[in-house]
Amino acid sequence: MSQKSLEKNTTEPYKLPNGWKWARLGEVCEIIMGQSPPGHTYTNTPGGLPFFQGKADFGEYFPKARIWCTQPIKVAVERDILISVRAPVGPVNMNNLMCCIGRGLAAIRCKDNTNNWFIFWYLRSIEAQIALLGSGSTFGAITRNGLINFQIPLPPLEIQRRIAIKLQELMQEVERARTACEKQLEAVKALPSAYLREVFESEEAKKWERKRLEELFTIQQGAAMSPKRRQGISPHYFLRTLNVMWGKLDLSTLDKMDFTDEEISKLSLKPGDLLICEGGEVGRTAIWKGEIDICLHQNHVHRLRKLKDNVIPEFYMYWMQAAFQVFKLYSGQASETTIPNLSIGKLKSFLVPFPPLSEQHCIATYLQEKMAYIDKLRTSIEKQLETINALPQAILRKAFRGEL
Length: 404
Known about the structure:
Layout: H1 3-8, E1 21-24, H2 25-28, E2 29-33, E3 42-43, E4 49-52, E5 67-69, E6 75-76, E7 81-84, E8 92-94, E9 99-101, E10 105-110, H3 116-125, H4 127-131, H5 144-148, E11 151-154, H6 157-200, H7 203-206, E12 209-212, E13 217-221, E14 235-239, E15 255-258, H8 261-267, E16 274-277, E17 285-287, E18 295-297, E19 301-306, H9 313-326, H10 344-348, E20 351-354, H11 357-399
Parallel strand pairs: 4-9, 14-18
Antiparallel strand pairs: 1-11, 2-10, 3-5, 4-5, 6-9, 7-8, 7-10, 12-20, 13-19, 14-15, 16-17, 16-19
């Protein structure tokens, strides 16, 4: 929908409760479009008025001064609502001091029959809708007429005040819930390191024999990608660094390229193969479980295949995670280039613990259980956080339909 059609649109968006009415924003508020003063009037140190130019100056509820202006042209006062009228179009903020506003902002000043926090919360609830006013041009912007003609639901002043107070209370509750949930999530994110330390810093771990990685595994680098491999002659799935996470594989974006029969024989993955990132996040390690029939790997992923049955690959998957993420043991082993990478030669020389087979098995099982528990807990908290983050819009929708 074009800006002109939005400006002319007089259709009521939805039915309001008795006593409410639809009003144009320009009928109940004064609209003051910002104007940027000459550049020589700006200063990085306090002097004159704080100068706000757009969304970048917004805090959660109030703007944050970064520069000042000694010769302001357009001024906003305390309790004005600030709205970003140039890309990004739509975000709103409450002003809490006298300030100078540039052309990226407009000030909405409420008249006697409107409550500024009520208007603020309504505009915040429809920021995406407001953004439509700035569509249809290379550089999105809202005109003064676009703001003047924007329709808002308007109950009697006393109801506006009551709703505004209630919204403040509810949003504070939501913020407290969000903060608590985010703290829980951070605590859960710290659990893998705690469990890895518990195992690999134990007194028993200090007694373990150490071996070079090449004594326990054959190490194979994958095939390099190239345009010639995209001809569809013999396409097969292959793993890239983006598929290898810490302790798991992401197979949602598998790619294909051509491989020769010799490469298929040499580079095909088998259940139990360890996969270690040579580039990207160096050292990231997961294990292949035979998820698909034929899958190979590119040259930025090292494949480690155990030499004997006295090796539990899962144990070494967790060891690599502990070594790189927790203990930073191999952090200096990546090549010091613009793009860090881990060569086969250096990987082969890594000293790794070599406990008895039964101990490897017990530790791998214990850590698998703990990491599965962490993943389940993390997913649960992330869903809670998603629900909490959706609450503000749900609350605002109810408020401006008279259902709060």
